[in-house]
Amino acid sequence: MKNAIILFSGGIDSTTCLEIAKEQGFACYALSFAYGQKHTVEVERAKKIASLAGVVEHRVLNLPIGEYGGSSLTDASITVPDHQDVSGIPNTYVPARNTIFLSFALSWGEVVCAYDIFIGANCIDYSQYPDCRPDYLQAFETLANLATKVGREENQGFKVHAPLLHLNKAEIIREGNRLGIDYGQTISCYRADQNGHACGTCDSCTYRKKGFAEAGMPDPTPYFTR
After folding, report:
1. What is the C-alpha to C-alpha distance for residues 109 and 218, in angstroms, rounded to an integer?
2. CA-CA-CA-CA torsion sign (35, 17, 189, 127)
3. Which residue in 103, 112, 215 sits closest to 160, CA to CA?
4. Sign of the CA dihedral running 129, 130, 133, 137
């Protein structure tokens, strides 16, 4: 059984990635981050889901990137927009976040001999983030194999897996349903409260609601009224 690192937020995409990796026979190491995000409940939910999924190990790393600000997910002075108000790359983009996350996954992977890294990136129903696109992921994989001892000397390259990259949200949800995922446990909302209730109107909520509707499945998400 090969080892894999799963970048894990506890949302629909990363939870589906985790179950796909398990189905493919990987022993899974889940990696989550407390990076100063306002919706801190996602970290607690990630812990719960990872435990129920039976991962080999789940680590939550504390990163100070939120101290830079520059994103409505980390900066109290910037408001998370409703989906209808978004044009282009929204202010929910956290500068270089996936590059930072993947770098930590790369480092841990070299230690635990996990040369496969799974990320729930998607370029169909997504917020136009630059670090969720195919050319970026391909470039990071190239970097990973140039930047590591394993990639240079041990005839063992790193592989970045993005199994959801070209699926819409409905297709992702149907795949998760096939895998037996309880999406009611997952958190997607950028404004989620401490009880895990979602706003229903941010980018992430909008794509989530659209996905369940197009998949013909009931949406298990608890919403609050703003």
Report:
1. 37
2. positive
3. 103
4. negative
List residues bridging with 6 in a β-sheet.
30, 118
Query: Which residues lie across from 57 on neighbouring strands?
Result: 29
SS (H, E, C) 43-105: HHHHHHHHHHHCCCEEEEEECHHHHHCCCCCCCCCCCCCEHHHCCCCCCCCCCCHHHHHHHHH
Domain boundaries, the chain: 3-215
Q: Which two tokens stand for residue 185?
A: 């446990």
CA distance 204 to 83: 8
Q: Which CATH class is domain 3-215?
A: alpha beta
User: Which residue's structure tokens are 């989550």?
Assistant: 32
- Residue that is written with structure tokens 């690192």 in the block: 5
Q: What's CA 211's distance to the chain center, in Å? A: 16
- When pLDDT is cut at 50, 70 and 90, the band that residue 15 belongs to is very high
The 10s digit of each residue's pLDDT in 47-104 is: 999 999 999 999 999 999 999 999 999 999 999 999 988 888 999 999 999 999 999 9
CA 188, CA 179: separation in Å to the nearest integer?
19
Distance CA 171, CA 216 (A): 11
Q: Give dist(CA 208, CA 71) in Å, integer.
A: 21
> 132 and 98 in contact (C-beta within 8 Å)?
yes
Contact of 210 with 169, CB cutoff 8 Å:
yes
